[in-house]
Hints:
It contains 15 helices and 12 strands. It is of the alpha/beta class.
Amino acid sequence: MKFATKAIHVGELNIDGIRPVINPIFQTTNYIMDDEAYEKLVQGKSREAWIYTRLNNPTRRAVEEKLASLEQGEDAVLFSSGIGAVAATLLTFLSPSDHVVSSKDLYGGSFRLLMELKEKLNIGVSFANPMEPEGIIDSATPRTKVFFFESLSNPLLKPFLIEGVVDFARRRGIKIVVDNTFLSPYNYNPLKNGADIVVHSITKYIGGHSDLIAGAAIGSKEDIEKIWHTMITLGASPDPIQCFLIERSIKTLAVRMEKHNKNAQRIARFLSKHSKVERVIHPSLETYYEYEYAKKNFKGGGGMVTFKIKGNDQDGIRFMRNLQIIKEAASLGGVESLVSMPFNTSHTSLSKEDRLLVGIEEGTIRLSVGIEDAEDLINDLDSALRAL
Ligand SMILES: Cc1ncc(COP(=O)(O)O)c(C=O)c1O
């Protein structure tokens, strides 16, 4: 099956001969125990048994199966948030005194998490540029257990050139964890390029309607079983209604992503010619850091466009307040277009010096292009820029 067909049909439940077209919500805390359930519990195979919803739930399991298939992994585990998925995955493979290599151009919450791991668990953290594999390898130490990068970084949309570190990581037993939130499984599958585990904030494109918070980790059966164990220990499981909403959302992921890709490409081209704009970043532009790499590896450039207006952060705020259709709000990946500035939202945990060091200059705007009519969005952006 191809992507759009899998998104709709994988994970259809067949319950005792009843075959509803839509998977039901198993709104139950627990399940009636029988000999088989007790046996699996004793054998430590509780993920395969129906015991308690924090451990397992049919509505959730169906979505996990669907997501695993879309990311081309063997298995998946859902979480009550994206940061829950990141935290549980890192905690599964990192112990006190271990070491992780990551990037400072990273979702602010993930950066904060790395700082907490460093402070509370004495986990060493080094930072490297996701586009420089040599630098990532050079940053590794004998204690390095994880390389953690975003497939497209937040907010500067730098690609993680994973192929350059795969052999090294395999030889050293280092897990490559990739946050694929910005591209979504529709545009890119990091597992195919050598990642061990993919994590997502489902809250964004997979959810797609700005009405839920959830996350996921996808990988081999063995790795996912371990991450699931951390998930149930920390208690970061999503409830069945949340899972039902995710299932409903995934069914339209392919059509939504096609429109996000097209709208963002048009808007990126429009902005790159605008006299009030200094710089535009989008994988579809010839000026992109790694244009050929993106063309070869990503089905589309995704819905995120990052640009720098001619002006400082205060001008950026004035620009955002001038917009009529595009709303100023944190988060991204929904059907509606949203705009924000990393300096006062996602990247407040970086100092101003660190922001400049990774390239987040004054006046940097992060635009999540929705699936409205592109013409209306372009007119809105144009009026707000002209009014500066
Ligand atoms: C790239 C990325 N990863 C992870 C997260 C965290 O996800 P959540 O807000 O669902 O916990 C976010 C949230 O903005 C994000 O942008």
